[in-house]
Amino acid sequence: MYSLKALVFDKFWEKIKEINFQIRLAAFCGNFFIAITLIVGMVGFLTMATDLWDGVIISHAISLDRPDVYHEWFSEAGLFFTPYIYDAIYIFRGAVSYDLLAKLVTVFFLILSAGEVVRISERYFNVDREVRFYTAILFYMSPAWVLYYSNIYLMHSLTLFVTLICTRYILDRKALVLCVPLLLLSFQQSSNAPLSISLILLDCMFNHVKIKDRIINIGFILIIAFGFFALRNLFPTHGLYESYNKIHLEHMFAVGGYFRMVEYFVLLYFPSFLVAGLALYFRPDKKALYMILIILVGVLLNGVAYIAVNKIPSFSEIGLMHGESLRFTFTSTVFAVLLLPAILQPLVEAPRLRILALMVILMYACAINIYAHEGKMKEVLFQRGMINEIKNLSYLPSCAINIKSAGVGVLTGYEYGHIFYRAYGETNQLPLGDSQNPVSDIKELYKIFNKDSYRVKYFMPAEAPGCVIDMNVSTSVGEWGFVETFTKYLSGSPGSIVKVSVLGVNPL
């Protein structure tokens, strides 16, 4: 017969095994969906064979061996160092295609940035290696990075990593002679300055608590602030970009902008906020509450740079074909993902609740990430379909093309120009994009873009066209589900995606 002690031990051991099995099963399911999500993202990202949004300008300039075009562009935008980042890719265009190499470099620095986010979590949270790993995954799966389908965001990927690693070295008081100037260079992306400052302030609260260290940190903050504004004055915006990203103080003090920023991140990381509320309700922990509030302040502090220029993200844009507002979340994401270790640390004594919370958060992130990729895949499919249909038309004369769209948003003129260039291999047409007064618009365009480099940049013919063609473009790609989208995307077949009809040529 079993003793009472043996029976109690056996029941306890069975309970332990049951919990371990549940944890392992949940972890396996979570890891499986994470792997699928990462594969979908990488396949979509690396097989698009094109560019999107502002990235088409650089891609076009490089295909024409005209780096002067993007040098002028970035110079006018006050981004004095950025063109040299793309020069490094341009040099190797003969060995590897520019589009593929730019994407590989972008992903490389994004992975390095995820590693730096792990090191940030290690500074403030006593969590195991598994939680730190999932923090990196959560960062990597932010829908913001799906915008990297456009190679214009190569600069953002690189400078974000430089900001994170240089700030870490500054906090560790290492390689300061190298890291301080590199940090200032990373402010090509303006929001990197608030990110660096907020990370230094965070360290003042938890690590650098001695007066001496805090004084040193204040000194670095002053250097960062002075360097940021000094560089803006030394390399001001001019030309076409004279008023680019102009700061408006009234926006900085408008409460609505901060509410919209919080709304975006609460919706994006809804399970994290839900678990945080439950954890604090059932296991009150002042330190955890304090940390969560600090993370929220960090999110808002990193949103100030965007709020000041009235550029705020919209959650509704995540799955859209042409949504670009998610770029306003790049630096805030660093703080937002710290919610994961912040809420899992106090749950260490509740293993089942902890693993359940972790898996729900990651599964939600997987769903959002795939939804975001689906939107960009549809955008690529639309491009492929429209290019294919234009190729099948009788060759269009050198006219302005007034495009009216159905089932898809209106693209920028240079995005349409990129599509026509890929179809014909030359820039003879001038896409307008649903103009109400083509004659007036053509005159205005050639008045503003009065240099050869401007016209090359925006896919404009050397001479103003003397005729207008009305073109109807329609597609149902926006209504497709994920399976149909992904299948069509991988098939490479551009047929039956877009319908194009030409209504005639009208002389001006």
Automatic annotation (TrEMBL):
Transmembrane segments: 21-46, 100-119, 131-148, 154-171, 215-235, 264-282, 289-308, 328-348, 355-372
Domain of life: Bacteria
Keywords: Membrane, Transmembrane, Transmembrane helix
Protein name per the record: Glycosyltransferase RgtA/B/C/D-like domain-containing protein
Species of the source: Pseudomonas leptonychotis
Lineage summary: Bacteria, Pseudomonadati, Pseudomonadota, Gammaproteobacteria, Pseudomonadales
